[in-house]
Amino acid sequence: MASTLVRQHLPYPPHPAPSHTAPPRTRARDWAEIQERMLVPLYEAVYERLEVGAGTRLLGLGCGSGLALLLAATRGAAVCGVDPDEERLALARERLGDGGLESVLTAATATAASGFTVVTAFEPLSALGTDGGADALAERLTAAAALAEPGSPVVLAGWGPPERCATSAVLRVGARLADPMCSPARWRPCGRDDLERLAQRAGLRPDGSGRVACPFGYADMDSAVRGLLSTGLFDAAERATDAVQVRKEITEALHPYRRQDGTVWMENVLRYLIARV
């Protein structure tokens, strides 16, 4: 079962400077150990619907530390991942095991990474309204689609309606503190037709969608704050203010979701779109 981490031949914008809350390695660990698992219901719902398994060649855009790839691999799929964050990629290599990983592919050898039957972009889209955000995302999807077989599904994910996403109240803290900065890391709700418009912009044909309950649950307040900071959605806020202020305001925004036993629980609904190459 082959697995590969691909990076250089797909267009990515320059990765924003990491937050100074914690070193990049620590932030990547927080993503892998706290936050990434919150999206497992999304991964599983899509894999079930597309019948991902033996014979599937899957390319994961924004693969992070590789949990979605690992879940696909356990179903028998051959997986490939791309992510601009080198620290997350290092953790993905650890998670997937050295035996199933090849070297990072470059533009000169990109033709070796083709013939994919499924492409996923699971990290919820939230920057389509920022300057150049939609253009960059469409360019990335177009490049990925060129590596897929005709008719293959490309899966995009986005936040559901704000009234059904408790986390949106916390993410607005980052957007408010970052203003008037305009950053691709700033969060905003995903509009009803944003995913369809993005797919069409990338030359893809929308072919079905779904919604998935993805509650964010944390063992305690510190884990909740660390997990949310690891998303990168508060980096612009930290550059505009400071890490202490951002952490304080995130904690305050989380208080309504803190239970008597100290755990933090936020109900969310995410939406996914299936488009065809």
UniProtKB/TrEMBL annotation:
It comes from the Bacteria. InterPro entries: Methyltransf_25, SAM-dependent_MTases_sf. It holds the Pfam family Methyltransf_25. One of its GO terms (biological process) is methylation. Residues 1-26 are annotated as: Disordered. The keyword Nucleotide-binding does not apply. Residues 59-134 form the Methyltransferase domain. Keywords: Methyltransferase, Transferase. GO terms for molecular function: methyltransferase activity. This is Methyltransferase domain-containing protein. It comes from Streptomyces lonegramiae.
